[in-house]
Write a structure and sequence with these properties.
By secondary structure, the chain is α+β, with helices and mostly antiparallel strands. Helix content is 26%, strand content 28%. It is built from 14 helices and 31 strands. The longest helix is centred in the first third of the chain and has 21 residues.
Protein backbone atom coordinates (compact mmCIF):
# COMPACT_ATOMS: atom_id res chain seq x y z
CA UNK A 1 0.00 0.00 0.00
CA UNK A 2 1.36 3.43 -1.00
CA UNK A 3 0.79 5.35 2.22
CA UNK A 4 1.83 8.98 2.49
CA UNK A 5 2.94 8.41 6.08
CA UNK A 6 5.87 6.35 4.76
CA UNK A 7 6.19 7.66 1.18
CA UNK A 8 9.13 9.94 0.36
CA UNK A 9 7.25 13.03 -0.83
CA UNK A 10 8.98 16.08 0.74
CA UNK A 11 6.59 18.89 -0.18
CA UNK A 12 7.52 22.54 0.32
CA UNK A 13 5.37 25.57 1.02
CA UNK A 14 7.68 27.98 -0.86
CA UNK A 15 9.40 27.60 -4.25
CA UNK A 16 13.18 27.88 -4.74
CA UNK A 17 14.33 31.49 -4.66
CA UNK A 18 15.78 31.30 -8.19
CA UNK A 19 12.78 29.58 -9.76
CA UNK A 20 10.99 31.44 -12.56
CA UNK A 21 9.27 28.70 -14.58
CA UNK A 22 6.02 27.32 -13.15
CA UNK A 23 7.26 23.76 -13.65
CA UNK A 24 10.46 24.52 -11.69
CA UNK A 25 8.48 25.95 -8.78
CA UNK A 26 5.79 23.31 -8.60
CA UNK A 27 7.90 20.22 -9.26
CA UNK A 28 10.17 21.19 -6.35
CA UNK A 29 7.28 22.16 -4.08
CA UNK A 30 5.38 18.94 -4.87
CA UNK A 31 8.39 16.79 -3.92
CA UNK A 32 9.00 15.47 -7.44
CA UNK A 33 12.58 16.68 -8.01
CA UNK A 34 15.55 18.00 -6.04
CA UNK A 35 18.61 19.87 -7.26
CA UNK A 36 22.09 18.39 -6.87
CA UNK A 37 24.05 21.14 -8.63
CA UNK A 38 23.80 23.52 -11.55
CA UNK A 39 21.76 21.71 -14.20
CA UNK A 40 21.78 18.46 -12.21
CA UNK A 41 18.55 17.04 -10.76
CA UNK A 42 17.39 13.96 -8.89
CA UNK A 43 13.94 12.54 -9.59
CA UNK A 44 12.24 11.61 -6.32
CA UNK A 45 9.77 8.67 -6.22
CA UNK A 46 6.59 10.49 -7.33
CA UNK A 47 8.45 12.43 -10.01
CA UNK A 48 10.12 9.27 -11.27
CA UNK A 49 6.69 7.63 -11.59
CA UNK A 50 5.67 10.45 -13.97
CA UNK A 51 8.91 10.13 -15.91
CA UNK A 52 8.54 6.37 -16.29
CA UNK A 53 4.90 6.55 -17.33
CA UNK A 54 6.00 8.82 -20.18
CA UNK A 55 8.84 6.42 -20.99
CA UNK A 56 6.36 3.55 -21.24
CA UNK A 57 4.13 5.47 -23.66
CA UNK A 58 7.14 6.23 -25.85
CA UNK A 59 8.35 2.61 -25.66
CA UNK A 60 4.97 1.25 -26.74
CA UNK A 61 4.79 3.57 -29.74
CA UNK A 62 8.38 2.77 -30.79
CA UNK A 63 7.69 -0.95 -30.56
CA UNK A 64 4.52 -0.47 -32.62
CA UNK A 65 6.53 0.80 -35.63
CA UNK A 66 9.08 -2.00 -35.42
CA UNK A 67 11.70 -0.40 -33.18
CA UNK A 68 14.12 -2.71 -31.38
CA UNK A 69 15.19 -1.51 -27.93
CA UNK A 70 18.84 -1.72 -26.92
CA UNK A 71 21.24 0.16 -24.62
CA UNK A 72 24.48 1.95 -25.46
CA UNK A 73 26.97 3.44 -22.97
CA UNK A 74 27.26 7.08 -21.96
CA UNK A 75 31.07 7.02 -22.00
CA UNK A 76 32.56 6.88 -25.52
CA UNK A 77 36.02 6.85 -27.06
CA UNK A 78 36.72 10.20 -28.70
CA UNK A 79 37.77 8.74 -32.05
CA UNK A 80 34.31 8.22 -33.62
CA UNK A 81 33.39 11.78 -32.66
CA UNK A 82 36.56 13.03 -34.33
CA UNK A 83 35.70 11.09 -37.49
CA UNK A 84 32.30 12.75 -37.74
CA UNK A 85 33.67 16.22 -36.96
CA UNK A 86 31.69 16.62 -33.74
CA UNK A 87 34.51 16.33 -31.20
CA UNK A 88 35.01 20.12 -31.12
CA UNK A 89 31.40 20.88 -30.12
CA UNK A 90 31.65 23.14 -27.06
CA UNK A 91 28.80 21.45 -25.20
CA UNK A 92 30.45 18.01 -25.43
CA UNK A 93 31.98 16.85 -22.15
CA UNK A 94 35.55 15.65 -22.76
CA UNK A 95 37.82 13.74 -20.39
CA UNK A 96 40.76 11.34 -20.25
CA UNK A 97 40.85 7.90 -18.67
CA UNK A 98 43.70 6.74 -16.41
CA UNK A 99 45.73 5.68 -19.46
CA UNK A 100 45.43 9.14 -21.00
CA UNK A 101 43.00 8.13 -23.73
CA UNK A 102 40.56 10.81 -24.87
CA UNK A 103 36.94 10.05 -23.98
CA UNK A 104 33.61 11.88 -24.23
CA UNK A 105 30.28 11.76 -22.39
CA UNK A 106 27.59 11.31 -25.00
CA UNK A 107 25.02 13.96 -25.82
CA UNK A 108 23.62 11.71 -28.58
CA UNK A 109 24.56 8.27 -29.90
CA UNK A 110 24.82 8.55 -33.70
CA UNK A 111 28.52 7.65 -33.71
CA UNK A 112 28.12 4.50 -31.63
CA UNK A 113 24.97 3.07 -33.20
CA UNK A 114 26.37 3.71 -36.69
CA UNK A 115 29.51 1.83 -35.73
CA UNK A 116 27.48 -1.18 -34.60
CA UNK A 117 25.47 -1.17 -37.81
CA UNK A 118 28.55 -0.70 -40.00
CA UNK A 119 30.08 -3.83 -38.45
CA UNK A 120 26.95 -5.96 -38.83
CA UNK A 121 24.98 -4.89 -41.92
CA UNK A 122 26.25 -6.47 -45.13
CA UNK A 123 23.38 -6.73 -47.58
CA UNK A 124 20.30 -4.83 -48.72
CA UNK A 125 18.37 -7.75 -47.22
CA UNK A 126 19.39 -6.52 -43.73
CA UNK A 127 17.56 -3.21 -44.24
CA UNK A 128 15.46 -1.33 -43.15
CA UNK A 129 16.22 -1.27 -39.43
CA UNK A 130 15.01 0.78 -36.42
CA UNK A 131 17.08 0.74 -33.21
CA UNK A 132 16.32 2.79 -30.10
CA UNK A 133 17.22 3.17 -26.44
CA UNK A 134 16.56 5.27 -23.35
CA UNK A 135 19.83 6.57 -21.97
CA UNK A 136 21.39 9.34 -19.92
CA UNK A 137 22.79 12.20 -22.00
CA UNK A 138 25.40 14.70 -20.87
CA UNK A 139 25.61 18.25 -22.18
CA UNK A 140 27.91 21.00 -20.91
CA UNK A 141 25.04 23.46 -20.99
CA UNK A 142 26.34 27.02 -20.54
CA UNK A 143 23.16 28.34 -18.91
CA UNK A 144 21.15 25.65 -17.08
CA UNK A 145 17.74 27.02 -16.12
CA UNK A 146 14.08 26.34 -15.42
CA UNK A 147 14.44 23.17 -13.38
CA UNK A 148 14.42 20.09 -15.61
CA UNK A 149 13.80 22.09 -18.80
CA UNK A 150 17.45 22.97 -19.45
CA UNK A 151 19.88 20.64 -17.70
CA UNK A 152 23.37 19.22 -18.06
CA UNK A 153 22.22 15.63 -17.57
CA UNK A 154 18.96 14.12 -18.76
CA UNK A 155 17.43 10.92 -20.10
CA UNK A 156 16.43 10.83 -23.75
CA UNK A 157 14.85 8.30 -26.04
CA UNK A 158 16.84 8.33 -29.24
CA UNK A 159 16.03 6.08 -32.15
CA UNK A 160 17.90 5.57 -35.39
CA UNK A 161 16.72 4.33 -38.76
CA UNK A 162 18.88 2.66 -41.41
CA UNK A 163 17.72 2.41 -45.02
CA UNK A 164 18.91 1.77 -48.55
CA UNK A 165 18.12 5.17 -50.04
CA UNK A 166 16.30 8.47 -49.67
CA UNK A 167 12.91 6.92 -50.38
CA UNK A 168 13.45 4.40 -47.59
CA UNK A 169 14.47 7.20 -45.21
CA UNK A 170 11.34 9.15 -46.12
CA UNK A 171 9.18 6.12 -45.26
CA UNK A 172 10.90 5.62 -41.89
CA UNK A 173 10.66 9.34 -41.16
CA UNK A 174 6.92 9.25 -41.80
CA UNK A 175 6.60 6.25 -39.44
CA UNK A 176 8.23 8.32 -36.72
CA UNK A 177 6.02 11.32 -37.46
CA UNK A 178 2.96 9.16 -36.88
CA UNK A 179 4.46 7.55 -33.77
CA UNK A 180 5.44 10.92 -32.29
CA UNK A 181 2.00 12.36 -33.00
CA UNK A 182 0.52 9.47 -30.99
CA UNK A 183 3.08 9.88 -28.18
CA UNK A 184 2.15 13.52 -27.66
CA UNK A 185 -1.57 12.82 -27.85
CA UNK A 186 -1.25 9.98 -25.32
CA UNK A 187 0.80 12.19 -22.96
CA UNK A 188 -2.13 14.63 -22.97
CA UNK A 189 -0.05 17.58 -24.18
CA UNK A 190 -0.96 20.49 -26.39
CA UNK A 191 1.62 20.36 -29.16
CA UNK A 192 2.57 21.15 -32.72
CA UNK A 193 5.15 19.85 -35.17
CA UNK A 194 7.31 22.57 -36.70
CA UNK A 195 9.98 22.88 -39.37
CA UNK A 196 13.41 23.13 -37.73
CA UNK A 197 17.10 23.69 -38.30
CA UNK A 198 19.31 20.59 -38.49
CA UNK A 199 21.90 22.27 -36.22
CA UNK A 200 24.87 20.26 -35.03
CA UNK A 201 23.12 17.01 -36.06
CA UNK A 202 23.54 17.85 -39.74
CA UNK A 203 21.57 16.19 -42.49
CA UNK A 204 18.79 16.97 -44.93
CA UNK A 205 15.86 18.21 -42.87
CA UNK A 206 14.29 18.25 -39.42
CA UNK A 207 11.11 18.85 -37.44
CA UNK A 208 10.64 19.68 -33.78
CA UNK A 209 7.73 18.77 -31.54
CA UNK A 210 6.82 21.79 -29.47
CA UNK A 211 4.59 22.20 -26.42
CA UNK A 212 3.39 25.81 -26.23
CA UNK A 213 3.84 27.54 -22.86
CA UNK A 214 5.18 30.86 -21.52
CA UNK A 215 8.33 29.24 -20.08
CA UNK A 216 9.38 27.87 -23.46
CA UNK A 217 12.88 28.72 -24.62
CA UNK A 218 12.01 28.43 -28.32
CA UNK A 219 9.90 30.83 -30.37
CA UNK A 220 7.56 29.30 -32.93
CA UNK A 221 6.03 31.08 -35.92
CA UNK A 222 2.46 29.94 -36.54
CA UNK A 223 -0.09 30.68 -39.26
CA UNK A 224 -2.96 28.77 -40.84
CA UNK A 225 -1.40 25.56 -42.18
CA UNK A 226 2.12 26.64 -41.19
CA UNK A 227 4.37 26.05 -38.18
CA UNK A 228 8.12 26.58 -37.96
CA UNK A 229 10.77 27.31 -35.39
CA UNK A 230 11.61 31.01 -35.60
CA UNK A 231 15.17 29.92 -36.40
CA UNK A 232 14.07 28.73 -39.87
CA UNK A 233 10.67 30.36 -40.42
CA UNK A 234 10.08 32.19 -43.68
CA UNK A 235 7.19 34.47 -44.58
CA UNK A 236 6.17 37.41 -46.75
CA UNK A 237 7.23 40.64 -45.08
CA UNK A 238 4.78 43.38 -44.21
CA UNK A 239 4.75 46.15 -46.77
CA UNK A 240 6.53 49.42 -46.20
CA UNK A 241 6.05 52.83 -47.86
CA UNK A 242 9.20 53.85 -49.76
CA UNK A 243 10.38 57.38 -50.62
CA UNK A 244 10.07 58.37 -54.32
CA UNK A 245 12.83 57.12 -56.64
CA UNK A 246 15.72 59.39 -57.61
CA UNK A 247 17.85 59.42 -60.74
CA UNK A 248 20.88 58.50 -58.61
CA UNK A 249 21.74 58.25 -54.90
CA UNK A 250 22.16 61.59 -53.14
CA UNK A 251 24.26 62.24 -50.07
CA UNK A 252 22.54 63.71 -47.04
CA UNK A 253 24.26 65.04 -43.94
CA UNK A 254 23.38 62.93 -40.87
CA UNK A 255 25.77 64.03 -38.11
CA UNK A 256 26.02 61.51 -35.28
CA UNK A 257 23.07 59.47 -36.56
CA UNK A 258 24.29 55.89 -36.21
CA UNK A 259 20.97 54.16 -35.52
CA UNK A 260 18.18 53.15 -37.86
CA UNK A 261 15.55 54.95 -35.78
CA UNK A 262 17.59 58.14 -35.64
CA UNK A 263 18.15 58.23 -39.40
CA UNK A 264 14.51 57.36 -40.13
CA UNK A 265 13.25 60.19 -37.91
CA UNK A 266 15.66 62.71 -39.33
CA UNK A 267 14.85 61.88 -42.96
CA UNK A 268 11.14 61.31 -42.25
CA UNK A 269 10.99 57.77 -43.62
CA UNK A 270 9.82 54.51 -42.11
CA UNK A 271 12.56 52.31 -40.56
CA UNK A 272 11.69 49.68 -43.20
CA UNK A 273 12.67 52.17 -45.91
CA UNK A 274 16.28 52.12 -44.69
CA UNK A 275 18.89 49.49 -45.43
CA UNK A 276 20.77 47.87 -42.56
CA UNK A 277 24.31 46.67 -43.34
CA UNK A 278 25.79 43.73 -41.40
CA UNK A 279 29.45 42.99 -42.28
CA UNK A 280 30.62 39.42 -41.63
CA UNK A 281 33.95 37.60 -41.79
CA UNK A 282 34.09 34.14 -43.37
CA UNK A 283 36.79 31.46 -42.91
CA UNK A 284 39.89 32.69 -44.72
CA UNK A 285 39.30 36.25 -43.47
CA UNK A 286 37.14 37.35 -46.42
CA UNK A 287 34.41 39.91 -45.73
CA UNK A 288 30.87 39.96 -47.07
CA UNK A 289 28.09 42.45 -46.50
CA UNK A 290 24.60 41.30 -45.50
CA UNK A 291 21.94 43.90 -46.27
CA UNK A 292 18.34 43.87 -45.05
CA UNK A 293 15.53 46.26 -44.23
CA UNK A 294 16.15 48.52 -41.27
CA UNK A 295 13.14 47.13 -39.40
CA UNK A 296 14.37 43.54 -39.71
CA UNK A 297 16.99 41.48 -37.88
CA UNK A 298 19.55 39.04 -39.24
CA UNK A 299 18.73 35.42 -38.45
CA UNK A 300 22.18 33.91 -37.95
CA UNK A 301 20.99 30.32 -38.38
CA UNK A 302 19.39 31.11 -41.73
CA UNK A 303 22.48 33.08 -42.71
CA UNK A 304 24.75 30.13 -41.96
CA UNK A 305 22.49 27.97 -44.09
CA UNK A 306 22.61 30.45 -46.99
CA UNK A 307 26.41 30.72 -46.75
CA UNK A 308 26.90 26.98 -46.16
CA UNK A 309 29.69 28.17 -43.90
CA UNK A 310 30.33 29.50 -40.44
CA UNK A 311 31.00 33.20 -39.97
CA UNK A 312 31.48 35.87 -37.33
CA UNK A 313 30.43 39.52 -37.15
CA UNK A 314 33.19 41.85 -38.33
CA UNK A 315 34.98 43.84 -35.63
CA UNK A 316 34.72 47.66 -35.73
CA UNK A 317 38.37 48.00 -36.78
CA UNK A 318 37.81 45.56 -39.68
CA UNK A 319 34.72 47.48 -40.78
CA UNK A 320 36.62 50.78 -40.65
CA UNK A 321 39.52 49.41 -42.65
CA UNK A 322 37.57 47.66 -45.39
CA UNK A 323 34.30 49.57 -45.67
CA UNK A 324 33.87 52.76 -43.68
CA UNK A 325 33.03 54.10 -40.24
CA UNK A 326 30.60 51.85 -38.29
CA UNK A 327 27.14 53.39 -38.13
CA UNK A 328 27.45 54.90 -41.61
CA UNK A 329 28.15 51.88 -43.82
CA UNK A 330 26.07 50.72 -46.77
CA UNK A 331 26.17 48.63 -49.94
CA UNK A 332 26.77 51.38 -52.53
CA UNK A 333 30.42 51.22 -53.57
CA UNK A 334 31.22 48.30 -51.25
CA UNK A 335 34.05 46.27 -52.76
CA UNK A 336 32.87 42.88 -51.52
CA UNK A 337 30.08 40.35 -52.18
CA UNK A 338 26.66 41.58 -51.02
CA UNK A 339 23.88 39.32 -49.76
CA UNK A 340 20.51 41.10 -49.99
CA UNK A 341 17.59 39.80 -47.98
CA UNK A 342 14.56 38.94 -50.10
CA UNK A 343 12.28 41.16 -48.02
CA UNK A 344 13.97 44.19 -49.55
CA UNK A 345 11.55 45.11 -52.35
CA UNK A 346 13.75 44.65 -55.40
CA UNK A 347 12.00 46.33 -58.34
CA UNK A 348 9.43 47.98 -56.06
CA UNK A 349 8.44 51.57 -56.73
CA UNK A 350 10.55 53.85 -54.59
CA UNK A 351 14.02 53.87 -53.08
CA UNK A 352 15.89 53.30 -49.82
CA UNK A 353 18.18 55.17 -47.46
CA UNK A 354 21.58 53.57 -46.78
CA UNK A 355 24.91 54.47 -45.23
CA UNK A 356 27.35 56.38 -47.46
CA UNK A 357 30.48 54.67 -46.08
CA UNK A 358 31.82 57.98 -44.74
CA UNK A 359 31.27 59.59 -41.38
CA UNK A 360 28.09 61.60 -40.80
CA UNK A 361 26.58 60.89 -44.23
CA UNK A 362 23.87 58.64 -45.62
CA UNK A 363 22.52 58.17 -49.14
CA UNK A 364 18.91 58.62 -50.15
CA UNK A 365 17.47 57.27 -53.42
CA UNK A 366 19.34 53.91 -53.26
CA UNK A 367 17.96 51.16 -55.50
CA UNK A 368 19.26 47.57 -55.29
CA UNK A 369 20.48 46.25 -58.61
CA UNK A 370 20.95 49.69 -60.14
CA UNK A 371 23.27 51.01 -57.44
CA UNK A 372 24.88 47.81 -56.20
CA UNK A 373 25.02 44.16 -57.30
CA UNK A 374 23.77 41.47 -54.95
CA UNK A 375 22.87 37.85 -54.35
CA UNK A 376 19.29 37.39 -53.10
CA UNK A 377 18.91 35.36 -49.88
CA UNK A 378 16.36 34.78 -47.11
CA UNK A 379 18.28 35.64 -43.94
CA UNK A 380 15.90 37.66 -41.75
CA UNK A 381 13.87 36.63 -38.72
CA UNK A 382 10.15 36.76 -39.43
CA UNK A 383 8.05 38.95 -37.16
CA UNK A 384 4.45 38.85 -36.01
CA UNK A 385 2.17 40.20 -38.72
CA UNK A 386 4.17 38.78 -41.64
CA UNK A 387 2.07 36.43 -43.75
CA UNK A 388 2.15 32.91 -45.16
CA UNK A 389 -0.33 32.35 -48.00
CA UNK A 390 -2.21 35.40 -46.80
CA UNK A 391 -2.44 34.21 -43.20
CA UNK A 392 -0.83 36.41 -40.54
CA UNK A 393 2.03 35.00 -38.50
CA UNK A 394 1.85 34.91 -34.71
CA UNK A 395 4.83 34.00 -32.56
CA UNK A 396 4.53 31.91 -29.40
CA UNK A 397 7.08 30.54 -26.89
CA UNK A 398 7.22 26.76 -26.64
CA UNK A 399 9.16 23.89 -25.07
CA UNK A 400 10.95 21.56 -27.47
CA UNK A 401 10.07 18.04 -26.29
CA UNK A 402 11.05 15.98 -29.34
CA UNK A 403 12.96 16.32 -32.59
CA UNK A 404 13.37 14.22 -35.73
CA UNK A 405 16.15 14.49 -38.31
CA UNK A 406 16.80 13.18 -41.80
CA UNK A 407 20.53 12.53 -41.49
CA UNK A 408 21.05 11.04 -44.94
CA UNK A 409 24.65 9.81 -45.20
CA UNK A 410 26.00 12.41 -42.74
CA UNK A 411 27.28 9.69 -40.36
CA UNK A 412 27.38 6.58 -42.50
CA UNK A 413 29.99 8.09 -44.84
CA UNK A 414 32.69 8.99 -42.26
CA UNK A 415 32.01 5.82 -40.24
CA UNK A 416 31.89 3.44 -43.20
CA UNK A 417 28.30 2.18 -42.82
CA UNK A 418 27.60 0.52 -46.19
CA UNK A 419 25.70 -2.39 -47.73
CA UNK A 420 25.78 -4.37 -50.98
CA UNK A 421 22.82 -3.80 -53.29
CA UNK A 422 21.25 -6.42 -55.61
CA UNK A 423 24.03 -5.96 -58.15
CA UNK A 424 26.77 -6.35 -55.53
CA UNK A 425 27.65 -2.64 -55.57
CA UNK A 426 28.63 -0.99 -52.29
CA UNK A 427 26.17 1.72 -51.22
CA UNK A 428 26.03 4.08 -48.24
CA UNK A 429 23.29 3.49 -45.68
CA UNK A 430 20.78 6.33 -45.29
CA UNK A 431 20.01 7.29 -41.70
CA UNK A 432 17.49 9.15 -39.57
CA UNK A 433 17.69 10.20 -35.91
CA UNK A 434 14.73 10.80 -33.58
CA UNK A 435 14.83 12.17 -30.02
CA UNK A 436 12.23 12.50 -27.25
CA UNK A 437 12.77 14.00 -23.78
CA UNK A 438 10.54 12.49 -21.05
CA UNK A 439 11.64 15.14 -18.53
CA UNK A 440 10.64 17.92 -20.87
CA UNK A 441 7.29 16.25 -21.51
CA UNK A 442 6.66 16.13 -17.76
CA UNK A 443 7.62 19.79 -17.30
CA UNK A 444 5.51 20.81 -20.29
CA UNK A 445 2.46 19.10 -18.76
CA UNK A 446 3.00 21.04 -15.53
CA UNK A 447 3.40 24.31 -17.44
CA UNK A 448 0.30 23.80 -19.55
CA UNK A 449 -2.21 22.63 -16.95
CA UNK A 450 -1.15 23.97 -13.55
CA UNK A 451 -3.38 26.42 -11.69
CA UNK A 452 -2.89 28.62 -8.63
CA UNK A 453 -3.24 25.58 -6.34
CA UNK A 454 -0.65 23.31 -7.95
CA UNK A 455 -0.13 20.70 -10.67
CA UNK A 456 -2.98 19.19 -12.68
CA UNK A 457 -1.64 16.13 -14.51
CA UNK A 458 -3.13 14.58 -17.64
CA UNK A 459 -4.41 11.23 -16.39
CA UNK A 460 -2.09 9.23 -18.67
CA UNK A 461 1.11 10.45 -16.98
CA UNK A 462 0.05 11.34 -13.44
CA UNK A 463 2.14 9.82 -10.62
CA UNK A 464 -1.07 8.33 -9.20
CA UNK A 465 -4.54 8.10 -10.71
CA UNK A 466 -6.40 8.64 -7.43
CA UNK A 467 -5.50 10.03 -4.02
CA UNK A 468 -7.62 8.92 -1.08
CA UNK A 469 -7.88 11.47 1.74
CA UNK A 470 -9.67 10.15 4.85
CA UNK A 471 -10.30 12.85 7.44
CA UNK A 472 -10.66 10.53 10.44
CA UNK A 473 -7.92 9.24 12.70
CA UNK A 474 -6.62 5.68 12.94
CA UNK A 475 -9.41 3.27 13.93
CA UNK A 476 -12.20 5.54 12.64
CA UNK A 477 -14.90 4.53 10.15
CA UNK A 478 -13.33 6.93 7.65
CA UNK A 479 -10.01 5.09 7.85
CA UNK A 480 -11.69 1.70 7.58
CA UNK A 481 -13.46 2.75 4.40
CA UNK A 482 -10.24 4.26 3.09
CA UNK A 483 -8.41 0.96 3.61
CA UNK A 484 -11.14 -0.96 1.78
CA UNK A 485 -11.47 1.55 -1.05
CA UNK A 486 -7.72 1.54 -1.59
CA UNK A 487 -7.69 -2.21 -2.19
CA UNK A 488 -10.75 -2.08 -4.46
CA UNK A 489 -9.30 0.70 -6.61
CA UNK A 490 -6.01 -1.17 -6.93
CA UNK A 491 -7.90 -4.28 -8.08
CA UNK A 492 -9.57 -2.14 -10.75
CA UNK A 493 -6.13 -1.14 -12.04
CA UNK A 494 -5.97 2.40 -10.67
CA UNK A 495 -2.69 3.60 -9.21
CA UNK A 496 -3.75 4.87 -5.80
CA UNK A 497 -2.08 7.03 -3.15
CA UNK A 498 -3.43 6.87 0.41
CA UNK A 499 -2.97 9.89 2.69
CA UNK A 500 -2.98 8.17 6.08
CA UNK A 501 -1.11 10.94 7.89
CA UNK A 502 -2.42 12.36 11.15
CA UNK A 503 -2.54 15.81 9.59
CA UNK A 504 -5.34 18.34 9.43
CA UNK A 505 -7.73 18.58 6.47
CA UNK A 506 -6.16 21.84 5.27
CA UNK A 507 -2.68 20.35 5.03
CA UNK A 508 -3.97 17.20 3.34
CA UNK A 509 -6.00 19.12 0.78
CA UNK A 510 -3.16 21.55 0.04
CA UNK A 511 -0.69 18.70 -0.58
CA UNK A 512 -3.21 16.81 -2.71
CA UNK A 513 -3.86 19.80 -4.94
CA UNK A 514 -0.12 20.52 -5.16
CA UNK A 515 0.67 16.97 -6.30
CA UNK A 516 -2.18 17.08 -8.81
CA UNK A 517 -3.51 13.51 -9.06
CA UNK A 518 -6.48 13.51 -11.48
CA UNK A 519 -8.98 12.46 -8.77
CA UNK A 520 -9.13 13.11 -5.04
CA UNK A 521 -11.47 10.99 -2.94
CA UNK A 522 -12.32 12.61 0.40
CA UNK A 523 -13.85 10.46 3.14
CA UNK A 524 -15.34 12.69 5.83
CA UNK A 525 -17.71 12.06 8.73
CA UNK A 526 -20.61 14.06 7.28
CA UNK A 527 -20.59 12.53 3.78
CA UNK A 528 -19.98 9.05 5.20
CA UNK A 529 -23.02 9.45 7.44
CA UNK A 530 -25.01 10.20 4.27
CA UNK A 531 -23.66 7.02 2.65
CA UNK A 532 -21.41 8.92 0.22
CA UNK A 533 -17.82 9.90 -0.46
CA UNK A 534 -16.70 13.10 -2.14
CA UNK A 535 -14.73 13.01 -5.40
CA UNK A 536 -12.93 16.06 -6.78
CA UNK A 537 -11.70 16.24 -10.39
CA UNK A 538 -8.36 18.04 -10.11
CA UNK A 539 -8.66 19.67 -13.56
CA UNK A 540 -11.20 22.42 -12.92
CA UNK A 541 -11.68 21.32 -9.27
CA UNK A 542 -15.24 20.16 -9.92
CA UNK A 543 -16.64 18.13 -7.00
CA UNK A 544 -19.28 15.40 -6.92
CA UNK A 545 -20.32 12.56 -4.60
CA UNK A 546 -20.74 8.84 -5.20
CA UNK A 547 -22.49 6.24 -3.01
CA UNK A 548 -20.29 4.21 -0.69
CA UNK A 549 -21.84 1.08 -2.17
CA UNK A 550 -20.05 0.61 -5.51
CA UNK A 551 -17.81 3.63 -4.89
CA UNK A 552 -14.70 2.06 -6.44
CA UNK A 553 -16.48 1.30 -9.72
CA UNK A 554 -18.01 4.80 -9.83
CA UNK A 555 -14.62 6.39 -9.19
CA UNK A 556 -13.02 4.27 -11.92
CA UNK A 557 -15.71 5.40 -14.35
CA UNK A 558 -15.10 9.05 -13.49
CA UNK A 559 -11.38 8.54 -14.06
CA UNK A 560 -12.00 7.06 -17.51
CA UNK A 561 -13.81 10.24 -18.54
CA UNK A 562 -10.97 12.60 -17.53
CA UNK A 563 -8.61 14.31 -20.03
Amino acid sequence: MTRLSTYFLPTEREPPADAEAISHKLMVRAGLIRQVGSGLWSWLPAGWRVHQRIVQIVREEMDAIGGQEMLMPVLHPAEPWRRTGRYDIEELFKLKDRRGADMVLAMTHEEIVTGHVAAAIKSYRDLPLILYHFQVKERDEPRPRAGVLRTREFIMKDSYTFDRDADGLDAQYEKHVQAYDRMFDRCGLEWYRVEADVGMMGGLGAHEYMAPCPAGENDVALAAGYAANLEVATAEAQRVTLPPPLAAPEEVHTPGMTTIDGVARALEVQPGATLKAYPIILPGDSMQLVVLRGDHRVNEIKLRGALRSDFRPARPDEVEARLGPPGFIGPVGAQMPILLDKAVGVGATGSYVAGANRADFHLRGVEPGRDFPFESVDVRSVVAGDTVNGSAIRIEPAIEVGNIFKLGTRYSEPLGATYLDESGTTQLIWMGSYGFGPARAAAAAVEQFADEHGISWPRSIAPFDVEIVPLGKEGSDERALGDRLYLELQELGLRTLYDDRDAGPGEKFADAELLGCPLRVTIGRRTLAAGEVEVQMRRGRETTTVPVQGAAEAIAQLWQELP
